[in-house]
Amino acid sequence: MPPTPPEPRAAALAPAFTAAPDLTAAFSTTSTPAPAPAAVPSGQRRPINPFLANDPNQKARRLARALVSDMVAYHPSRREEGLQAGTLKQLFRDEIKKSYEEYVEQVGREFAESTAHFQEALNDVLAGGRKIF
Asked: Which one of 19, 60, 79, 116 has the minimum C-beta count within 10 Å?
């Protein structure tokens, strides 16, 4: 008796892929509905991405926090030392000055001096919530 030829690979695998899983339960609409978005004043569109918002205060806050966060990221041990010894202002004097100059360059001197966004970022991020600056 001659040997039987092997089964083709595709035919052997086909039965495993013929039935698709039932995903209707995963996409069911019977779950609780999403909360309604906050109201937007008439005549204004909600920005798709909040990072692209045209609110100068929001942009300035975000910039200030980013600049101060960089100080913390590059000098974590100096920050800890300054928090413990109460010398944060002295230890970060040069970095604060340089970051503030960058902040003023990007938001404008008048805006920077009329808001407390940079000072708030220093207190929140660098000083860990303490009112040092």
From this structure: 19
